Amino acid sequence: MRQEDMEKILRVGVLLSSERDPNRLLEQILGCVMELAGCDAGTLYLRKGDTLEFEIMRNDTLKTFSGGTKGKPDLPPVPLSRDNVCAMALLEDRTICIEDVKNNQEYDFSGPVRYDAMTGYDTRSMLVVPMRNREGERMGVIQLINALDKEGHVCAFTPDMALVLESVASQAAITIQNVRYMEEIKELFQSFVRVMSSAIDERTPYNASHARHMAECGGRFVDYLGTCQGQKSFSQEEKEEFLMSILLHDIGKLVTPLEVMNKAKRLFPEQYANISHRMEVIRLYTKLAFLSGRINQEEKEQALHRVQSAWELVEKINSAGFVGEELLRQLEELGTFTYVDEEGGMHPWLEPEEYAMLSIRKGTLSEEERKVMEGHVSVTDRLLSQIHFSHNLSHVREWAAAHHEFLNGTGYPGHKRGEEIPYEVRIITILDIFDSLVADDRPYKRAMPVDRALSILKTMAEQEGKLDQELTELFVRSRCWEG
Q1: Short-list 372, 371, 429, CA closest to 255
Q2: Angle between helical axes of 159-202 and 22-37 (0-180°, round to 10)
Q3: Within this chain, do residues 424 and 327 fall inside the same structural domain, yes or no?
Q4: Whether residue 156 is found in the same domain as residue 22
Q5: Are residue 244 and residue 348 in the same domain, yes or no?
Q6: How many domains are there within the chain?
Q7: What is the dihedral of CA 88, 94, 100, 101, to 10 degrees?
Q8: Do 322 and 233 fall within a single domain?
Q9: Within-domain flag for 196
Q10: Cα(143)–Cα(112) distance, rounded to whole angstroms?
Q11: Contact of 86 with 143, CB cutoff 8 Å
């Protein structure tokens, strides 16, 4: 074997071992073996069940190429029948070398004959090499057509070249297998991430599609950023890392108490029921006082009206998005009311814990409950610290655990400021806030119109300094939430 051929084989080994994209790998394999064999055309098939499927087709004379990164050839698979030379090579696990297909009666060459009739091509010599992996599994076939001599004339494939290509084909099969393993491991991990994300969302009806919506919107937004001057253009690997951070950003909510996550109103259901029961008891005591003659009709009506007004106030505050000064004043007055039971004991209309919950000005969570809820980001960090992320996913933990940080330092848990917050985290924060505002499945608020939500984002960016102003403006322009 010539030194030149040896160098080519070594280059092929280096080239194949460095490629990780399955489609580009197949292109590299066919291109390398065609260069080694010095032939004009070739096809690479991979086995699927009882057929061989076309993956790559190349013909230099006709200047045609299909498959690989250009999409799989639109051709029917070849049955594993002994009539077909490529199938025979796979079935018998042997290399088949044919000097002139038109004078060969052993195999069915009607396909090449039809191809030649349609294109004007002249198929002559052929070399078919099976691809075996390290376990001996026959994964596919490389079929080469029309070896060329130094003058460019079609000639037969030489026996020593057949041996070389058998070695390269085996190496190619092992590389394909390794790439498949890596793709399977990658898909397994991504499936796990999707399951965990779904588990978080499905744990409560009040978060049903949050991470999925964010990921869909985020994917479109980073694609848009790639078209904007001065903004980062995400590679496929960087985009996958970014989207995985989104899918895992709320994993800490797996341990957040449901009574906090699902708290639709200020009062817990049992507190609400207790107040309702207490108001009914006060009504009954009022009626008993009237029947026993301790109060007159007018006093009874006033007392019952007072109870009804108190209950209406509780109902109003319990479900209000925000409690203003007037409602707080009325609540404070209600907090002073007492009643006397049948044994002469005095009791408040509202217990201290009930009063404290109704005093929450914004949202449904008390300060203590809010701290519990905010703690999910620290839990996210702890949980993700136990996963050994690959180099390509090395930022997932950091980005996922920082999605509540604000540029002005008022976020949590680390109160980071400015450049301490990565570019990707700034995007995730915008996505998280926007989806939370427009979501129609939150217990503590109604879905907000998109225009209003965008206005809030702008205020947070331009006036409060919490969000990245440029990214917020680009987010508004992108309309990425529209799909």
Answers
A1: 372
A2: 180
A3: no
A4: yes
A5: no
A6: 3
A7: 10
A8: no
A9: no
A10: 12
A11: yes
What distances in angstroms separate CA 156 from CA 112, 117, 128, 159, 289, one per listed residue? 17, 22, 13, 9, 116
Q: What is the pLDDT, as a whole number, of residue 113? A: 84
H-state helical runs in 99-255: 110-119, 159-202, 210-225, 236-248
Residue with the two structure tokens 């994209």 = 21
Same domain membership, residue 170 and residue 115: yes
Element (H, E) at 138: strand 138-148
User: Helix, strand, coil shares of the chain as percentages rounded to 5?
Assistant: 55, 10, 30
Output the CA angle 418-423-427, nearest 5 degrees: 105
What pLDDT shows up at residue 249?
93
Return the sign of the alpha-carbon dihedral for residues 30, 33, 38, 44. negative
Of 77, 212, 86, 60, the closest CA to residue 141 belongs to 86
84, 225: one domain? no
Is residue 440 within 8 A of residue 447, CB to CB? The reply is yes
Determine contact, residues 331/358, Cβ cutoff 8 Å.
yes
For 169, the domain range is 3-181
Q: Is 188 within a domain? A: no
CATH code (residue 381): 1.10.3210.10
Alpha carbon of residue 315 to chain centroid: 40
Q: What is the spatial distance between Cα 249 and Cα 377, in angstroms, rounded to a whole number?
A: 8
- Phi-psi label, residue 436: left if phi above 0, alpha if psi -120 to 50, beta otherwise: alpha
Q: Report residue 149 as tokens.
A: 């001599």
Q: So what's the pLDDT on residue 222?
A: 97
Cis peptide before 413 (omega within 30 of 0): yes
Residues 245 and 325 in one domain: no
DSSP H or E run through 64 = strand 64-67
The Cα 211–Cα 194 span in angstroms is 10
Question: Is residue 343 within 8 Å of residue 322, measured between CB atoms?
Answer: no
Q: Is residue 272 part of a domain?
A: yes
Q: What is the model's pTM?
A: 0.68
Overall residue count recorded for the chain in this entry: 483
pLDDT means per 10 residues, the chain with 483 residues, are 58 64 81 88 93 93 90 87 87 92 84 86 93 85 94 91 82 80 82 82 72 94 96 94 94 89 90 96 93 92 96 95 93 95 91 96 91 93 92 94 96 95 98 90 70 96 97 97 88
Are residues 385 and 458 both part of a single domain?
Answer: yes
Residue 325: half-sphere exposure toward Cβ, Cα within 13 Å: 0
Is 191 contained in some domain? no
